Amino acid sequence: MSLTSGSATALITTEKLSKTFSRQGVQQHVLRNLDLVIGEGDFTVIMGASGAGKSTLLYALSGMDSPTLGDVRFGGRSIIGLTQSQLARFRRRACGFVFQQIHLLAALSLFDNAMAAGLLVSGDRAAVARRAEALFEQVGIDRATQAKFPAQTSGGEAQRAAVVRALMNTPQVLFADEPTGALDQASGAAVLDALTDAHRVGQAVVLVTHDLKSARRGNRVLYLADGQISGELDLGDYPGPAAAPAEAARAEALRGFLADMGW
Ligand SMILES: Nc1ncnc2c1ncn2[C@@H]1O[C@H](COP(=O)(O)OP(=O)(O)OP(=O)(O)O)[C@@H](O)[C@H]1O
Ligand SMILES: [Mg+2]
Question: Is 24 in the pocket of ligand 1 (CB under 6 A)?
Answer without folding.
Answer: no
